[in-house]
Structure to design on (406 residues):
């Protein structure tokens, strides 16, 4: 269930009596460290108050599509992008009908149209309404569009009837939501990922480094693990916990990262170099703290830097090489520099990352990239690093398929 930790679930609550269970659902999701944001329809507020769901989720509850204050905080498009998963529980027959027909007259239906995240519905209604041909037709349309149905369950209903239409129990909904983050794309594969910065020592207290937080690389490790791979994460110094089931090897310098990579690379199927590795290190590391030399008549301190090994290129040069993915962090001519690195380093794929833009790249929660490979140029729009990582893993799997079938 750790798969749910740090995921962003947008919980839609529509107007059915099972809305009272949404409160417990939020609590269970929060127990799993899920970041929950709630969107309520007008009808649902007859059954449970926004204040209750706000208190339980720890986030403001969104209600109106045309609320300038809410839009200024987190607008509907931002909410749609923010979500890793949209879960509508309970989902009424009316909501299913509106979603099946592409309506966008309130916040929840609009979000569902605008999001790229998977959408899951937990239907809850009277058994006759569920059995009705219109509801079944709407269900079929939704399933065809890729919407997942969690239930409904069968049993005694609030109205006294017995039959299908009960919303699944909260524990089942949490379990099914968790399963949504596990694909089997990389089952049986070994994946190695480098992440974070390196530190190149000048003396015992100082080093040269960069602003990498490790968030992108750790998100990739989690996405690869969720896809069924056995993952080794070679990490520079960062403040992140390793994802569950990921084997982390911690290093400091580029040379340590290079050695750790080559000690573990055997039998790897995929290597993803996301780390921001220092290209150069000081030639000499002073044994003691470098002191200010007050006897000199100038203020400069001259350092001689020498080149570090190129880790990703060294993996791509192996005789029995994995599928090698590099990143290119660029501030100008992003695509042409990335294409040049793809070729020079003999990579199978490169992820071009414009690190000059605010809100993406180094030390941010979101990213936007363009992926280049033979016969591939695909832009992935700005979204959370975990969501982007999942898309990148899908692209890697797609390209690996191409390579093996050549
Ligand atoms: O960690 P975050 O804060 O989440 O930020 C993510 C990121 C911006 C660090 C990430 O998205 C990214 O762009 N990583 C690559 C950073 C980088 O060093 O890029 P580069 O263009 O300098 O290097 C090109 C490629 O060669 C990279 O795959 C890099 O890992 C690799 N490299 C570079 C130098 C070296 N000596 N060895 C290498 O393997």
């Amino acid at each position: 269930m750790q798969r749910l930790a740090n995921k962003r679930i947008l919980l839609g609550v529509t107007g059915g009596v099972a809305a009272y269970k949404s409160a417990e659902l939020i609590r269970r999701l929060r127990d799993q460290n899920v970041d929950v944001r709630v969107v309520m329809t007008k009808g649902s507020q007859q059954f449970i108050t926004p204040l209750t769901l706000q208190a339980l989720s720890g986030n403001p509850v969104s209600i109106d599509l045309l609320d300038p204050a809410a839009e200024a905080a987190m607008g509907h498009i931002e909410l749609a992008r923010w979500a890793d998963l949209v879960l509508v529980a309970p989902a009424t027959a009316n909501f299913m009908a509106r979603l099946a027909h592409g309506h966008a007259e309130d916040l929840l239906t609009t979000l569902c149209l605008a999001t790229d995240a998977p959408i899951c519905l937990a239907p809850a209604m009277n058994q006759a309404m569920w059995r009705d041909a219109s509801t079944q037709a709407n269900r079929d349309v939704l399933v065809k569009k890729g919407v997942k149905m969690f239930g409904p369950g069968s049993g005694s209903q609030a109205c006294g009837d017995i039959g299908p239409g009960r919303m699944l129990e909260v524990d089942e909904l949490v379990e099914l939501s968790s399963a949504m983050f596990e694909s089997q794309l990389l089952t049986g594969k070994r994946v190695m990922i480098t992440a974070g910065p390196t530190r190149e020592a000048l003396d015992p207290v100082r080093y040269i480094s960069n602003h990498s937080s490790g968030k992108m690389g750790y998100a990739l490790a989690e996405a690869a693990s969720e896809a069924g791979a056995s993952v080794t994460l070679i990490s520079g110094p960062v403040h992140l916990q390793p994802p569950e089931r990921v084997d982390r090897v911690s290093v400091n310098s580029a040379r340590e990262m290079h050695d750790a990579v080559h000690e573990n690379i055997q039998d790897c199927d995929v290597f993803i170099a996301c780390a921001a590795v220092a290209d150069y290190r000081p030639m000499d590391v002073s044994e003691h703290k470098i002191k200010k030399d007050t006897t000199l008549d100038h203020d400069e301190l001259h350092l001689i830097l020498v080149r570090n090994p190129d880790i990703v290129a060294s993996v791509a040069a192996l005789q029995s090489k994995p599928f090698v993915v590099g990143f290119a962090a660029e501030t100008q001519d992003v695509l042409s520099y990335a294409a040049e690195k793809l070729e020079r380093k003999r990579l199978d794929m490169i992820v071009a990352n414009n690190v000059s833009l605010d809100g993406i790249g180094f030390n941010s929660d979101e990213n936007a990239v363009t992926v280049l490979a033979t016969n591939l140029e695909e832009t992935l729009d700005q979204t959370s690093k975990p969501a982007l990582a999942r898309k990148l893993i899908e692209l890697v799997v797609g390209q690996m398929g191409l390579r093996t079938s050549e």
User: Anything to note?
Assistant: DSSP finds 14 helices and 19 strands in the chain. The chain has two domains: 2-178, 190-280+304-405. The chain has a mean pLDDT of 93. Residues 194, 196, 212-217, 254, 273-277, 279, 308, 310-312, 326-329, 341, 353, 355, 361-363 surround PMT (CB under 6 Å).
